[in-house]
Design goal:
Length: 460
């Protein structure tokens, strides 16, 4: 089976559904782009048949009373397939929402339930009052506050690591685990995702997680990325992707323990470690954490199964066999004396409609790949990073917030989303040897809150 190559610069399409002009002017990602060649072949076929009937002055066949049965049956099967694919699309989208909601819940519970020490006690009661700031709270922090900060930072970094791991699974399942190999471009993007994981965990933790990936690395990749044992995110800004003989990397297709399960084990141990501690949370809240982790693994399995189990082959085979037979038989049911419109234009539009519905089913069946109609998963991770750090700020935990830094995204990754993808989060102690930019020019709008005094009574 030929290897499907990832198209460069792909990001999810956004459009204005209220604008006919915007919708009709689109080519990329439309069904016409995907099936225009088949429609063109149909046009040539019916045009040749029409010309031959005119030349021979005879019809190839005549429509009979029940000739519409095949067309109606085919339409029913195509619509049923499109509806099934649409259901899979929404189920996958719902699973992604539930997964990211679980990650947010982990961070929210850690910020709300971890008691900390004296500084956290005062912050919870005086935040925003009488000019009580984070700086004043930091001056009141004690050993329990520092331990709570370390615990929150751990949960946040593991949550971000699970989001990146989810993206790795989507890359691997689309080609690697399904075909047993992947192309050079996809492998370089995968290496960047692996480096993102390395910037969020220690060397020992990363080796434990990365061992489950089972993908081929060249000697050049090992020298550039993994030989020093430290995180090396700057490599992706200075180096192009290494060349692999044959242009493909081997991936083991043997079932094994997934990365996500290893990460969930780390998170479960981290959460359990802080229960009933003076700075932590009461053990009665532990089932809430476990429930969240369980629901996230269920979401992960739903997405994984959806990607690896398409609609049953007998059904798709039947639909496309009937579709091919129907398009081939169209000249045998139309009288050539009905003219060009009936013999060429209408069959071509019919082919476009039927082939388009079939293509819609194909597009919606798996919304997790690298195509333009797939979900913008990178944008979800970007939003999660900002939400996590913002929650630490709202909890008054500046120490945990300062445990993370922003690193610039290499140019070849910035086109993976429709949103500005310029920075990503890393653990400060894992990139302390890297020159980190001091400021981030994010652009956009800045809102300034101003207190407006009401005019005094009697003034103009």
């Amino acid at each position: 089976k030929p290897l499907a190559r990832a198209a460069p610069g792909i990001a999810m399409i956004t459009y204005d559904p209220k604008s006919w002009r915007d919708v009709l002017s689109r080519w990329s990602g439309s069904t016409i782009e995907a099936c225009w060649s088949k429609v063109a072949i149909t046009f040539v076929y019916v045009s040749a048949a029409y010309a031959l009937q005119i030349t021979l002055d005879c019809n190839f066949g005549y429509a009979f009373d029940h000739s519409y049965i095949v067309g109606r049956t085919l339409s029913f099967l195509l619509v049923f397939r499109a509806n099934s694919s649409y259901g899979r699309y929404w189920d996958g989208r719902k699973a992604c929402v539930e997964f990211f909601s679980g990650l947010r819940d982990l961070a929210t519970l850690s910020c709300a339930l971890f008691k900390g020490g004296h500084g956290q006690y005062v912050w919870n009661r005086r935040a925003g009052q009488d000019g009580f700031s984070v700086e004043r709270k930091s001056g009141l922090d004690d050993i329990d506050d520092r331990r709570a900060s370390e615990a929150r930072a751990d949960i946040v970094r593991w949550s971000l690591a699970m989001a990146v791991c989810f993206k790795i699974m989507l890359r691997m399942t689309g080609q690697g685990y399904y075909h047993g190999e992947m192309d050079e471009e996809l492998k370089w993007k995968l290496d960047f995702d692996r480096m993102r994981l390395r910037t969020l965990m220690s060397k020992v933790e990363f080796e434990e997680v990365d061992r489950a990936l089972r993908v081929e690395d060249t000697g050049e990749e090992r020298r550039l990325l993994w030989q020093t044992g430290r995180s090396e995110p700057q490599v992706f800004h200075n180096q192009s992707q290494p060349q692999q003989p044959g242009g493909v990397y081997k991936v083991s297709m043997e079932p094994s323990c997934p990365q996500m399960l290893i990460l969930l084990n780390f998170v479960a141990r981290t959460v359990r470690l802080h229960s009933n501690e003076p700075y932590g949370y009461k053990e009665r809240f532990l089932p809430e954490f476990i429930k969240i982790l369980k629901s996230m693994m269920v979401c992960y399995d739903r997405v994984s199964q959806g990607m690896t189990t398409p609609l049953p082959l007998p059904y798709v085979n039947l639909v496309r066999t009937l579709l091919l037979a129907y398009l081939f038989s169209m000249p045998f049911f139309i009288t050539y004396t009905d003219g060009l419109l009936a013999n060429v234009v209408m069959p071509t539009l019919t082919a476009l409609a039927l082939l388009g519905i079939d293509q819609i089913g194909t597009e919606l069946e798996n919304p997790f790949g690298e195509d333009v109609n797939d979900l913008d998963f990178q944008a979800m991770i970007m939003g999660l990073e900002k939400e996590m750090l913002r929650m630490l700020q709202l909890a008054g935990d500046s120490r945990a917030r300062d445990s993370f830094v922003w690193l610039p995204v290499p140019k070849f990754m910035q086109s993976e989303t429709t949103k500005p993808f310029l920075w990503y989060v890393a653990l400060q102690k894992e990139v302390s040897h890297v020159e980190v930019p001091r400021s981030r020019n994010l652009g956009g709008l800045r809102v300034r809150h101003v207190n407006l005094e009401l005019p005094k009574k009697g003034s103009q």
